[in-house]
Design goal:
With 245 residues, the chain is α/β, with parallel strands linked by helices. It has 9 helices and 10 strands.
Length: 245
């Protein structure tokens, strides 16, 4: 027997703070508390990240954050597993989709699940919250009229150098800001490659620890970057932005 749209559940795209030290009262809208109380389970990047998220909220006396089922959706999830993740929703349950930090579907595999959910006419609700990508773009002062988020760049040095030069070309020809991220422990290596491969007049912004008291945003030309000591941002979540002068 087929399930009608009215019998289907909901997929809630829930925002998360950018760091476990950040206050949910400051960065998460109050309406999220109301909806989290309704969920039957959470689809998350990691169980640890999901538990940190859930413990921020209060639940009824009948259950605690430890009682909420968690199913994983990350880089190891296979295409055929996405349908399994949606089965509870097709039976009328309400599940949340949450990233370890920031907004779901930005720089994580949640977009594939949302696409499949929409194809199955499951109701999807999204909520505002912090995004390191958007915050870095705002804080950089670089143009947001035209920009592109490029995710993670290649780790192989030769391929990375080619990518950087391609991003520079796009920034110059399209007058668009190029945004990308890196695994925190590789921040310094990426910065070294950027300084080596970008033209002296290009603008580079590095923003890290966004929303924390240790937040730092540095925006300089490549020539200026080369005159100063490297920033101390090893193992800190950072966003990189390239712009034409």
């Amino acid at each position: 027997m087929s399930v009608t749209d009215s019998q289907k559940g909901k997929l809630l795209l829930l925002p998360n703070v950018l760091d476990i030290e950040a206050s949910d009262l400051t960065f998460l809208p109050p309406v999220v508390q109301q909806h989290v109380q309704e969920i039957h389970g959470v689809i998350a990047e990691s169980e640890k990240g999901a538990r940190y998220f859930l413990r921020r909220f209060s639940f009824s006396k009948e259950r605690t954050f430890r009682d909420i089922p968690i199913r994983l959706l990350n880089e190891h999830t296979q295409e055929n597993e996405l349908t399994d993740l949606l089965n509870p929703l097709l039976k009328g349950e309400c599940w949340g989709l949450v990233s370890d930090c920031g907004l779901p579907c930005l720089a994580d595999p949640g977009a594939k699940l949302v696409f499949k959910a929409r194809a199955k006419h499951i109701e999807i609700l999204a909520f505002p919250g912090p995004s390191s990508i958007v915050l870095a773009l705002m804080l950089s002062g670089f143009s947001a009229q035209s920009f592109a988020f490029n995710g993670y760049l290649d780790r192989e040095p030769a391929k990375l150098a080619v990518q950087i030069k391609q991003l520079q070309k796009r920034a110059l020809e399209e007058k668009s800001t190029q945004v990308f991220i890196e695994t925190p422990y590789r921040n310094q290596k990426l910065l070294e490659s950027l300084l080596e491969n970008l033209a002296a007049h290009m603008l580079l912004c590095v923003a890290w620890d966004l929303t924390l008291t240790s937040e730092q945003v540095i925006c300089l030309s490549i020539a200026e970057w080369k005159k100063r000591p490297f920033p101390s941002f090893h193992k800190k979540p950072a966003v990189f932005l390239i712009s034409s002068p």
